[in-house]
Amino acid sequence: MKKTQLRKKILKKRKYFNIKDKEINFSKLIKLLKREVSSKKIGIYYPIGSEVSTISLIKNLRNKKYIISLPVLEKNFKMSFYEWNENSSLKINNFGIPEPFKLKKITPSALIIPTVAFDANLNRLGYGGGFYDRFINKIEKSKKILKIGLALSCQKINKVPTNKFDKKMNYIFTENKVYK
Questions:
Q1: How many alpha carbons fall within 13 Å on the CB side of residue 162?
Q2: Is 134 within 8 Å of 112 (Cβ atoms)?
Q3: Is this model's pTM higher than 0.90 or not?
Q4: Cα(146)–Cα(109) distance, rounded to whole angstroms?
Q5: How far is CA 173 from CA 10, 74, 119, in A?
Q6: Angle 55-63/27-36 helices, nearest 10 degrees?
Q7: Distance separating alpha carbons of residues 45 and 51, to the nearest angstrom
Q8: Is the separation of the CB atoms in 73 and 109 below 8 Å?
Q9: Which of 13, 32, 38, 145 is the residue whose CA sits 20 to 30 A from 44?
Q10: In whole angstroms, what is the distance from residue 157 CA to residue 49 CA?
């Protein structure tokens, strides 16, 4: 199945997944960040639609003095991360994604990434723009970055179709299991 068809199929499945099962216990993720990341700079997404909600995670990380940054889509399919807190406004970009205003650019040490589909080998299928893959490729030229995908168990498939530009995750967290 081609990536485009696969995205449509999995997104439809995720949309109708039992709402009570959409919560992930983030305590393991926070312990992982504390253990594996020296900097407290975290790149995370603001949830839209049926994505795994990161709102409670953001609040919890903020309480633990992490610096939260959200992605901003730039020209030429590039992406940057800018600091954000709950008291700051967000603007909606052309894709319907909330973004912070470009006040303070951050280079995160860990990324918490939305996922459309994934497999047990930590391959991730995103929305198709390649923004995260390009950002990770750019950052990894100079430093290591921890890559964590968030998904629901219903988004797991046997094999994600990949190409040479696709970046594997270090971990994928679902409501049932942590893949590593």
A1: 18
A2: no
A3: yes
A4: 6
A5: 17, 28, 12
A6: 50
A7: 10
A8: no
A9: 13
A10: 21
Query: 83 is written with which tokens?
Result: 């600091």
Of 158, 159, 152, residue with least CA distance to 177: 152
pLDDT, mean of each 10-residue run, the chain (180 residues): 90 78 83 95 95 94 97 93 94 94 96 98 96 97 96 96 96 96
Do the beta carbons of residue 60 and residue 30 sit within 8 Å? yes
**What is 29-50 written as a DSSP string?**
HHHHHHHH-SS-EEE-PPP-TT
Q: Which domain holds residue 173?
A: 3-179
CATH number at residue 69: 3.40.50.10420
Query: What's the number of domains the chain is made of?
Result: 1
Contact 132, 27 (CB under 8 A): no
